[in-house]
Amino acid sequence: MGTHHYNLSEQFEFTGKVKTLSIIGIVIGLATIGYYGFVSSEHWAHERIFANLLLMAYYFACVCMSGAFFLAVQYVAQAGWSASILRVPQAMAKVLPIAVVILLVVIGLGLYTHNLYHHWHADGLTDPNSDNFDKLIAGKSAFLNVPFFMSRQVIFLGTYSIFATLLAKWSANEDLEGGLNSYRKSFKYSCIFLVIYGFTTPVFAFDTIMSLEAHWFSTMFGWYNFAAMWVSSLATIAVIIILLRRAGYMSWVNNSHLHNLGQFIFGFSIFWTYVWFAQFLLIYYANMSEETVYFYNRFNNYEAWFYINLIMNFLSPLLLLMDRDNKRSETTLLIVSIIVLCGHWVDYYQMIMPGVFTNGTKDGSGFGLPEIGTALGFLGLFTFTVMGSLSKKPLIAKNHPFLQESLNHHL
Amino acid sequence: MSNIKYILGSFGDPDEMMHGIEKLQENNIKIHDVYTPMPIHGIEAKLGVKRSRLDIAAFFFGITGTLTMLTGVYLATVVDWPINIGGKTHFALPDFIPITFELTILFCAFGLVGSYYASTHLFPGRAPRVMDLRATNDRFIIAIDAKANAEHEKIDELLKGAGALEVKYNERKYVSYE
């Protein structure tokens, strides 16, 4: 160990190849959306592009809000190891308002154009005299109606954004003023945020994803989505830190910090599997037709995705990250994080696509340019906004009370 | 020839003990082992202790549990007693994942407790062997093999210089609680 001297005012410069590539990504994304939204004459084009927009906007918002969740967890646990890497999740938390606006626009337009949520949002579904009358949807309409649905989205996402912005702001104040005031405030509001977040994310997932197939419901679904968004956010943090280190920044991050992140990714991948399996097993075992319809659709029309999902999100972190040395290895952790990030795209894909297309045009689902283009667009947007926000502040919170503990972190 | 088998430097402070280890290592005196009442951060690296292979053992105990359970379930539900339950296949794997998981953990836990006892010579009915009883209480002990290191006076001097409160010359390797 011994004493270290790090440049505590080091700042990330967002220029060059990273910036160019992220802008190219955004352009590809916009071109894809433009082509399938306005030019293409395929009958499924609109539905497909809306499904992809929902997928990526949800993914983007979830990664950013879990960045705020990461901050809150570290504050509430009074964790010392993470003090020197907090700027990365802070940058993600600061981007949350942008992600929220995009998600709300996608959901709003999807509802308005009847490309998303048509299972519970169509004419006559709740009218007993109509041909379209659906008893189950009518029974749920006190909860699943557009005004209440949209206000829930706005309130939940707005609340997360406020807490995310506040936590980032106090950490910036801490840099200027020092002292413990910011830390105490962050601790207090993190406690409040965790309670709100814990109770509202399942409902947020029920609304945004589960209501695509409004007849079906699962109480595990909220936790299943929570696990997915949390582990993908942890993998994102790991990827950003490793790439920054490779670019010569954040020299204070040692392999003990990576070990901790690796443990997080490993542990919560197993947690994801646990929740996924808990949901699957109960439905498989009970074998009731109103429940099995969900997996019936996925087994018959999306069978490969079903298994790829498990291989990428369970088997690969389990086997590649179990060993201690692998968690401490930069390359292994980077590879596993990328596999997990792609894996959760697959996870969201097989949550969303069957729901949108079974209740819509019934065909046109698939994997091709709309998926790749939209994903690249959002990847570019994420890189552009998060790296831009990261470059505004020094890469280390130099007055964080536990900074020394983090700089000397050793497992 | 003296009957001294081990020289024990007894420290009251872990930092002084770490300093003592450094001094001895600088003078090329081989340390037999160090006994402390609590874990000391970074001591394994300093003494060059090899990483424990307990995790590898854990993996194999666990996989034994997994295979035992799957074999047992297969023998029971397919070979011995095939029953149609809800129209599922006889070997309906998802149903048995939780119990397989449980047995993996059980085998792993019992196996590790067993390995721990075997490797530390601790099992019921055996008096624990320690070099200095106070190492389990308030002292930090550096043990040096007296036969392999001849310069006893120098060792004594180094240990006391580093802050040892007491240096003992033991003619028996272990003392036991009796």
UniProtKB/TrEMBL annotation, chain B:
Keyword list, A-Z: Membrane, Transmembrane, Transmembrane helix
Residues that span the membrane, as ranges: 56-76, 96-119
InterPro entries: ActD (IPR021776)
Protein name: DUF3341 domain-containing protein
Species of provenance: Pedobacter albus
Pfam families associated with the record: ActD
Coiled coil (UniProt feature): none
PANTHER family with a match to the protein in the record: LIPOPROTEIN-RELATED, QUINOL:CYTOCHROME C OXIDOREDUCTASE MEMBRANE PROTEIN
Top-level division of the source organism's lineage: Bacteria
